[in-house]
From TrEMBL, chain A:
One Gene Ontology term from the biological process aspect of the record: transmembrane transport
Xref: InterPro entries: Bact_solute-bd_prot1, SBP, SBP_1_CS
GO CC, one annotated term: cell envelope
UniProt protein name: Glycerol-3-phosphate binding protein
Amino acid sequence: MKKINSYNSRPLLFLFLICIVLLTTLTGCSSAKADSKIQITFWHEMTGPAQVQLEKFVNEFNKSQNKYTVVPQFEGNYNEAVQKILNTHGTSASPAVFQSMDISTSQIYNSGYTTPVQKFINADNYNVNKISAVARAFYSKNGQQLSMPFNTSQPVLYYNASLLKKYDITPPPVDPSYSDISRVAQQLYARSDKKVKGLSVEIYGWLFEQFLANSGESLANNDDGHSGTPTAVNFSGTTAMTTMKWIQENIKSGAFMNYGSGSNAPTNEMAGFLSGKLGMFLQSSADISQLTAGTEDKLGITYYPHPDGQKSNGVSIGGASLWISNDKSRKVQRGSWEFIKYLMRSQNQAAWQAATGYLALNKDSQKEAVLQKLYQKNPAARIPSQQLARTVPNNTNSGIFMQGLIQERTLTQTAMEQIYDGKNIKSSLQDAEKQMNSYVKSLNQANK
Amino acid sequence: MDTQITNKNPQMRYKQRKEEKPLMATGLSYNKSKALRDRLYALIFLGPSLLVLIVFVFFPMFRTLYLSFFLTNNLGKPTVFIGFANYISLLSSSAYLHSLQATFIYVIAVSCLTLTLGLLLAQTASQKVRGISFFRTIFSGTMGVSVSVAAIFWLFIFNPSVGMLDQLANLLHLPAINWLTQPGWAMTAVVISTVWMNLGFTFLIFFGAIQSVPSTLYEAAQIEGVSKIYQFFHITLPMISPTLFFVSIITLIESFKSFGLIDLMTAGGPDNATNLLVYRIYQDAFLSGNYGLASTESVILALIIAFFTFIQFKVLEKRVNY
């Protein structure tokens, strides 16, 4: 009995020892790696070309000075990152500077976990007027800059210029109305013998918000939350009704292609566009580089469409901004700000737009050689920047300052799915509105 | 007091153990100390796993129950006690009831199809035909496919512009189906993919069970001149009934918990047609940060699964031959 025991325990003991040795060497390694530089953990959610370019910036920043080391960490998609940021705050795992999506602005601000960048802007006398006003307005509250806009896009309309030429169709104007778009869509569908679908509008809450912004209608009360916490939403107003009617008419005619919602929708939509089966679609300007790289066809771009018989109010931005956590030492926060300033430099913003399609926010960037070259190669690439520059920020096109916007998107998307499937517009929108209002009520109650 | 006595008489203890007379006068104290020692041993051996269970199972379980009675703020902290309001609002919300209905349809479809097809494949692969081992490998092949790979594979097939099914329909002059953007078809697409994913495991388990049925039974049946179909229903099925029972429970519970394919293929859409209970929990907790509501949904889901498992044990088990 004893003998067996001793035989059995020996390999176990051995394994145990190996584990201990391994653990000590591993911890030794990591502690040996730390150097005298101040480490700044940077969380981001960029993928594809944007991730490559962002990591390039980080490397260049680390080499450009010897005080700070920025360590970039990819955190998955925007939605999940918000929860991770909020849940790790105050622990050693939390980031010093992080990227968080547009619609999380109110939530991040209300958490009280961040230091507004306005503090550093004031301390440095940083000339913030160089940065796009529409983009800044999205991330500010009562004139105070909360975070620095970073990857910023504008929704635009893309069209396949070669395809339109092939079927002898006049392209839509630069600032199109809904009926301009319908005209092109119908012609394309008819003249291609129903082989090419004319139009697609992804089931995406962001696009829904932009329809309202572009016609100057608020989505939430209290001026889209800019003058106080919203208590009710507006999903079924004039603009939403007109827009959904416009889409449903196009669906009925057969010229409209529904790619659905979720992460596959934009991928499928792009595949359809690049393979010449779709003529026009509404999407983020950040797609430009992928759209020009993937096809021989000439790409056309216009401003976001607006309802007939009115002027466009201008759309708000999309994307994300950079925040500085307040759970880190002053030195680390300072380093985070230095890194943000580095990213906002004119030549870096230009390189960012050229590599990714996100817009250069520094007004000086337009003069940079890399952007001039891009515009020469593809004049249409200028359109999103022009749309951004011509928009005068007001309460309806500066984003919605409200918590629970993820739920707002889920609900508007469900309503859009119902409408695209042929259901009654008014009741679908009102149903979503009702659900959102009761959600807002409990949200405000919980966050009092 | 007892320990003192035992400490004083180590010799006595030894003697008692030898004589195995625990109920003698001093035996009482010995007995108590033995019980104490047993408890100590139990604690040493079970303690670590108990600790792990408390930290990772029991605490989250009770925390979930606790959170389900609260509204949570933007940081996920419970702030307002609302009693059963979460439960009431859920059970009266048409969207949630819709999810509930979709989940039942999904679970029943997936379980039935997986069991039937798995059994069919296993029965086919049990035939002694030349080259059958090749098919046995193929049939169990999906066990080695991860969810993400399967989703990409099926998304290719269902793609509305360049998908295989779309091109096939074009070739045959059939109307194209928007597999993932029409409510009814989206559910069909997800069920097909899930069944395909599950099939490898189900097949392998059934195949093993069928192989272990004694061949003498079939020989006897053959001598009696009984048809193959009769053999299947009256020998194979009863003999593998414990396995059938096991697989049916596993499949049912697993399909209630389906997440990966839903997330990657439809993300709950269109019009919440594939927004199953687990996916809704994920959306409410990790996207909207509404932990109170998500906890309520978790509690309801746990109750539903417990109920079905209970029913299965009560009803199905009676038909199982061990």
